[in-house]
Amino acid sequence: MFSTIFGTAVRGSVKAAVCGVTVTCGCVHKRLSYGSGSVVLHGSAGYASGPTIATGHAVVMGAPRAPATSEDPSSTNAFHDYGVNPFTTAEEDRLSTFAADVDTASYAIARRAILSGTLPDAAAVRVEEFLNYFHYAYAPPPDDRPLEVHLDAAPSPFTQGKTTLLRVGVQAKQLKSSERKPLHLTFLVDVSGSMHSPDRLPLAKHALRILVDSLRDGDTVALCTYAGAVKDVLPPTGMEQKAKIYSAIEDLTPGGSTAMSSGLDLAYRNAMKTLSSNSISRVLVLTDGDANVGPSSRQELVDQIQKYAKEGVTLTTVGFGMGNLKDETLEQLADKGNGNYYYVDSLMQARRVFHEQLGSTLEVIAQDVKIQVEFDPRQVKRYRLAGYENRAIADKDFRNDKVDAGEVGSGHTVTALYELELQPGASKEALATVRIRAKKPRGERAEEWAFPLHAGAFAPAFSQASQDFRFASAVMAAAERLRRSQYSQGWDFDQIVKIAQEASPPDSAERKEFVQLLQRSKPLVGAVAAAK
Fold it and tell me: What crossing angle do the helices spanning 509-531 and 493-502 adopt, rounded to 10°?
C-alpha cells in the first residue's frame, strides 16, 4: 500500500532521508494550500522504507524523526507525516494562515495505542486534533455573528525565560435543540472482510444504534453497504420506523473486498433524494479506510465527493480498527467533503461522538473558516504554530473565497497554540491581531472579523494563567513529545503530567483520562528518548 504526503511549507534548504536517498529542496516557499506538491512513500513514520516516487516539491519540515513504535509491525496502517512547523521570523513573514479544524481522530488513535502498551505512530499524532478533542470554557459569540475569538498568553513553562505561549480560541454559536434542522443521514458501512473483528463492524453497529437513538421525528436514515459489491439496504426511512432501521443495522455482516468508490456513489445518490435548504443532508462513512477494488486512490475518491459537497451534502468519516487503518484517506475525504473525521475505539467514544456531540457533529454553522494571525515584528522576533501543518493556507488566499477551508459546527471550539520569541522590551499591547473569515452554510461570500491581542490578556506567570490555558498547554506539549517534535526534546515529561493534573477539575472525566494516558505513556516516551 502507498501513502501520499501533501506538501505544506518550508523555508530554506530541507533534506529528508528516504530509502537511503537524500531529497533536497532549496526553494523558499510561502505556505502552500494543502494539495500542492507531494511525496509518495511506502511505509509510515520516520525514515520510510521501500520504493519512493516524488512529484512536485519534496517537502519535509524540521528534522527527521526516530522510527515510530506501532501496535503491530506487520500492520498496513497508513499514517502521513506532515512534518513540524518551524519557527518563522516575523520580520520576514508576519502572517500565519490556516484553516479551522475540529477533527479529533488523532487523539482517539493515540489513546488506543497507549492503552495497548505502545506509543502511537509519530505520524498519527496531529497536535490540533489533540487540542480540539477537549472542551474549553470560551464565552459564546454575540448574536450578530457565528464565531468569537478569545486570546490569552503566558510565559512558557517548557522553555524557561525563552518563549511565550499564545492561545487562539474560537467558539462557535451553540444552536438550541429546537433550532436544529431535520437530519437526513445516509450511513455507508464497510462490510468487507477486513471489518470482521470486534473493534470494527460490531462496534460500528453499536455506534449506529446510539446515533439512531439520538434522532427525533422528522429525521430520516438510509443505509448502504459496500464490499465486493454495493447494496442499497434501506431507503430514507423516518423515525416512526425505528424498528426497521435497527433490524437493518443488526443484519450487517462482513465479507468480500472493498469497493469504496462505488459505495460512495450509491450513498450520495440516496443523500441527494432528501437534499433541501431546510434540512441537513449528510453521508456518514464507517470503515477501516481500506479501498482495494475499483477506483480506489485517495485522489480519485476526493474528486468524486467534491462535486457532491458543492451541492450541499456533507461527509463525516469514522474510522474503526487498527492494523489496516487508512488514516489520511479518511481525514482527506472528510476535509474535502466539508465534514469531520473521527476515530471510534470504544463504546465510550461512540457515545461521545454520536450522542453527546450530535449537534456539533452534524450541523455546520460556519463554512470555509480561515484564521490569520498577524504578528508585529517590532514585538515578536519569531513564532511557531504547534500543529495545523496539513491545514496551512497561503497568506494570499486568506481573502480568496474560492479557496476551501474548514467547517465548524454548532458549539464547536477551535484551539491553536503558538510559541513566541518576543523582542527585548516588547510592550505586549497589540502584539498580534487575529482575523477570522467564514461563510454562512452554502454561502458564497465570507465575512471577516478582527480581534487584537491586548496586554491584559497576558498572565505574568504561567501559574497565574487560566486553568483552561494551562491544560491546553499540557495537551500541546504532550502531543509534541508523542510526535517526536525536535522542538520538544528538552521538555520535561513529568512537568507536562503535573501541569495536566493541576489543570484537571475532579469532575472532568476526559481530563482525568488524559492524565492517566500520560502516566501510562511516560515509560514509553522515556524509552524512546533513551534510545536516541
Answer: 180
Amino acid at 43: G
pLDDT value of residue 270? 86
Residue 508 main-chain phi, psi, to 5 deg: -100, 100
pLDDT digits (tens, 9 = 90+) for 241-286: 999 999 999 999 887 665 566 778 888 888 888 888 888 899 999 9
Contacts 24+ apart (CB under 8 A), 512-521: 513/111, 514/134, 514/475, 514/478, 517/110, 517/111, 517/114, 517/115, 518/478, 518/493, 520/114, 520/115, 521/114, 521/119, 521/482
Name the amino acid, one letter, at 219: D
pTM: 0.84
Phi, then psi, of 433 in degrees rounded to 5: -125, 130
Residues 191-243 pLDDT 10s: 988 888 999 999 999 999 999 999 999 999 999 998 877 888 999 999 999 99
Cα(91)–Cα(216) distance, integer angstroms: 55
Give, as one character, the DSSP assignment of residue 395.
G
Question: Which of 53-57, 158-162, 370-374 has the lowest average pLDDT?
Answer: 53-57
- As a whole number, the mean pLDDT across the chain is 83
177-362: CATH topology: Rossmann fold (3.40.50)
Domain spans, the chain: 177-362, 464-531
Give the long-range contacts of residues 238-244, CB within 8 A, separation 24 or more: 239/215, 242/212
Q: For residue 509, what are the CA distances in angstroms to 44, 62, 516?
A: 32, 35, 11
